Amino acid sequence: MAQEEATDTTTVEKTSEFLGMDLTAMAEKATDIVSSKGIDFIAAIIIFVVGRFVAGLITKGVRNVLHNRKVDQSLIGFTTGLAQALMMTFVIIAALSRIGIQTTSLVAVIGAAGLAVGLALQGSLSNFAAGVLIIIFKPYKVGDYVVAGGAEGVVEDIGIFTTTVVTLDNRTQIIPNSVATSGVIENYSKKGIRRLDLVAGVSYGDDIKKTKEVLEGIIAAEPKVLADPAPFVGVMEMADSSVNFAFRPWVKVDDYWDLFFQFNEQIKLRLDEEGITIPFPQRDVHLFQEK
């Protein structure tokens, strides 16, 4: 009996000693893990904070450079936002990698997602690229009168993806930028002046020298007509029913449409006053009697 009690006491002592040693080892291991991981966590936080600060500085620098080069504000906002998002993604991946998280699969997922989004947004990305080119190279700007992408009118807004044009009858047309840049762009406002091309037809029986003097007088009486380039009046063609005169003054873009309608009216009134005939289309019919 006494021997059994001694055996039990020895077993308990050995068990307690083993458990004590095991708990001590576990505590030391846990301390080591916490210590090493704690350093990693602190390093990750430092990477995130410093990376965020550096990303902010770079974004601010990019914004200032674009602003000094007078890049469109919408492009500045988009470009700086995209740059900051890319840099912060890199910073977050670096911080996660520092604490032992495997980021290879995360990078692969981000890459695959980017590819999928790119394929889904092919049209939008082409419009975006075209919008960037429009903003950088400026084939037209807000306020210009253009013909582009099948639309004609005054440019009201140039966005990253679309261009908004208002027609002369106040219709709003929204053109995808890739469509606007896919063909010839006619910008009537780029040079600041335009040539008014009108045609005045008179009868073959009228004095063409007098007609020319009358037309030149109409131009000379209008102060909005530019002296340089010089206006031109001359016989353009001898048509089927009339002698057609080219009436071509140069005017400022802002005055174009006012003078377009004004000159058409003045040509008719002045030719009537001078007794110069504006003929209707005529056709001579010859009848032959068969014998």
Automatic annotation (TrEMBL):
Domain Mechanosensitive ion channel MscS C-terminal: 198-278
InterPro entries: LSM_dom_sf, MS_channel_1st, MS_channel_C, MSC_TM_helix, MscS_archaea/bacteria_type, MscS_beta-dom_sf, MscS_channel_2nd, MscS_channel_C_sf
Main location: membrane
Keywords per UniProt: Cell membrane, Membrane, Transmembrane, Transmembrane helix
Subcellular location: Cell membrane
Pfam families attached to this UniProt entry: MS_channel_1st, MS_channel_1st_1, MS_channel_2nd, MS_channel_3rd
Topology with respect to the bilayer: Multi-pass membrane protein
Entries under SUPFAM superfamilies matching the protein: Mechanosensitive channel protein MscS (YggB), C-terminal domain, Mechanosensitive channel protein MscS (YggB), transmembrane region, Sm-like ribonucleoproteins
Record GO terms (molecular function): mechanosensitive monoatomic ion channel activity
Domain annotation Mechanosensitive ion channel MscS: ranges: 124-190
Membrane-spanning parts: 41-62, 74-96, 108-137
GO cellular component, one term: plasma membrane
Mechanosensitive ion channel transmembrane helices 2/3 domain residues: 89-122
The keyword Cytoplasm appears for this protein: no
Protein family (similarity comment): Belongs to the MscS (TC 1.A.23) family.
Protein name per UniProt: Mechanosensitive ion channel
Origin organism lineage: Bacteria, Pseudomonadati, Verrucomicrobiota, Opitutia, Puniceicoccales
